[in-house]
Amino acid sequence: MIRIYAVLLVLLTEFVKAQDIHYSQFDQTKSLINPALIFNQTEDYQIQLQRRSQWASVTTPFNTFSLSFNAKNIYKTFVAGTTILNDKAGDSHFLTKGVIFSLANSVFNSKGNVLSIGLQGSFYQRTINYDGLIFLEPEYFQISKVNFFDIGLGLSNYKELADKSAFLLGASVYHLNRPRQSFLLDRQVLLFPKYIVHSVYYVDLNSKINFSPAAYFSSQSQDNELIMGSGLTYKLSNQVDLHSGIYTRIKDSFIITLGMQKSN
Predict the structure, then answer these.
(1) Half-sphere exposure (Cβ direction) of 206: Cα atoms closer than 13 Å
(2) Mapping DSSP to helix (H, G, I), strand (E, B) and coil, where does residue 37 land?
(3) According to the model, what pLDDT value does residue 256 have?
(4) pLDDT at 71
């Protein structure tokens, strides 16, 4: 019923694990990709819950949890969003807690073409527990908690094209203020800015099938990540859509998505 589709992958960049928290379903976490994206939602309100667990077979599992809420037209055409983030990693119970505030509006909005800008301010706390760690030489740690404020900025452009198609292109930068990250008082370890470029092309193949190839690239200091692939939506009925997708994080892994949407 649904034809098998192939995604052409371009193996051009070297992949290294990024420093920041991120999900495999990158397109579902707007606040972590581009704060301008919250302007594009069609619903008046949107609530989203995400959870990730990994590396359980190797060490203490890495667990990530996020809860997001976005609301349209809080003042004129402004859209606001809040994300609560909790991430615990490894034997040190390295914990990152954060509250992210995003605000977006359009700078150009004509029929079928929307250019939006988003500003983000975040408050983070990072803690570490040294009791479960073993060191070959004595280590003298001065603090186990770091608090910092973070600033992000994003732009996105959604444009409807001919033949029932549309194109979304966005760019964002995080850690503009380069917050301090060190657990040692005498060291200046700063969080490097993170740059993201992402795009999606939406096209209706027929009255029932929508094809949406996407690309996502992020760069933070020497760490780069490239994800490419495509989503596929099949209209089962007037009220039910079936969603699927296959993506690859270049030189690392494949990502498969499945979902269903009923009415609104």
Answers:
(1) 7
(2) helix
(3) 94
(4) 95
pTM of the complete model: 0.85
| Joined tokens for residue 176 | 């503009």
Return all residues near 9 (Cβ < 8 A) that are at least 6 apart: 228, 229, 248, 250
Residue with tokens 């499945």: 258
Give CA–CA dist 19/191, Å, rounded. 9
Helix/strand/coil for 186: coil
Question: For 23-61, b where at least 16 C-beta lie within 10 A, e where not — what string?
Answer: beebbebbbbbbbbbbbbbeeeebeeebebeeeeeeeee
Per the CB < 8 A criterion, the answer to whether 114 and 39 are in contact is yes
CA distance 96 to 33: 18
Residues in the chain: 264
For 216-257, what is each residue's pLDDT tens digit? 999 998 889 999 999 999 999 999 999 999 999 998 889 999
